[in-house]
Description:
This protein has 170 residues and is mostly beta strands. The chain is 6% helix and 34% strand.
Amino acid sequence: MTNTFTKVELKAYPLLPQVEAGMEVVALKDSDYEGLFGTIDAVLYGKDKETENDTVLDIVVTFKEEEGRKIDETHPHLNGTSICEVIMGEDELGFFFTVSNNLAQQLDGKYVCPACGKGMTSITEHQGETIQWDFEDGDYQKSITNEYSDGKKCGECGCEINDENEVFSY
């Protein structure tokens, strides 16, 4: 079924039409399920929504326990609440739109920092190079050696971002 989103909804969340059952997601910072990965079971919109939450979508997610750790260890505040078929809003999840993408994305387009779980409003990378002028044949010749980068870092927490797919390239 194709959802017909309003212009207002699409302006706030331009990636809404790409959300579908079977996608991998991660719960964002400040969500009860923060840091848990899961799979979308269903996407409910409009009159099909099961909640009256102030969200565009009801996204039904089955989360997975962290490998080697029980949910009551990692999320004791859930008090035994199931992590299966949890209804989440679009503002509580990061979405992996492609299998090869190692960075989740919010529906407003921001990528999610894997370290702090927040949408990144900025990414920084400090680059530099060593420039040397050598006197040869009566003139100075410029050469550049030792180009370097300190890596791409989340503007929210300063942690390095693994950008193996070069999402942030120039």
